[in-house]
Design a protein that fits this description.
This protein is α/β, with parallel strands linked by helices and 139 residues long. It has a single domain, classed as Alpha-Beta Complex (Ribosomal Protein L13p, Chain: A). It contains 5 helices and 5 strands. The longest helix is centred in the N-terminal third of the chain and has 13 residues.
Length: 139
């Protein structure tokens, strides 16, 4: 299944994709930087900034490392909705490919949209591209 991520809500998309991955489908998502997170911009950016800036005081190079690239942010969201067994999650994640933009090899492919996850301009939102730029992501 090939999915175009433009104007799709991140959390809803992640849950639908996770269910399909568990069922055994192979999924390719393009335009990950155009996926939308609904909520106040300041709160969302502050949440991600706090995660990215977390370090250990004794050695700042240690500590949790959070991704800053839109495709990897989305991949981590989907991974969080999979079963907790490490072997199972790793096997399932091999069925998923996520790209920022549309790669040359997939230019002529027809993309689907997942039902029930499109964004309808009623609330504040921010795209994954804007989040990653504000927290220092370069790709």
């Amino acid at each position: 299944m090939n999915v175009d991520g433009s104007n799709l809500v991140a959390g809803r998309l992640s849950s639908k994709i996770a269910k399909r991955l568990i069922d055994g489908e192979t999924i390719v998502i393009v335009n990950a930087e155009k996926v939308v997170m609904v909520g106040r911009r300041e709160e969302i950016v502050a949440k991600y900034k706090k995660k990215v800036d977390a370090t250990v005081h004794s050695n700042p190079h240690f500590g949790p490392k959070y991704e800053r690239i839109p495709s990897r942010i989305l991949k981590r969201m989907i991974k969080g909705m999979l079963p907790n067994r490490k072997v199972t999650a790793e096997r399932i994640m091999k069925q998923l490919k996520i790209y920022n933009g549309v790669p040359i090899t997939l230019k002529d492919t027809k993309f689907e949209t997942v039902s029930g996850v499109t964004y309808n301009d009623k609330h504040d939102f921010i795209t994954l591209k804007e989040i990653s730029e504000l927290i220092g992501g370069r790709w």
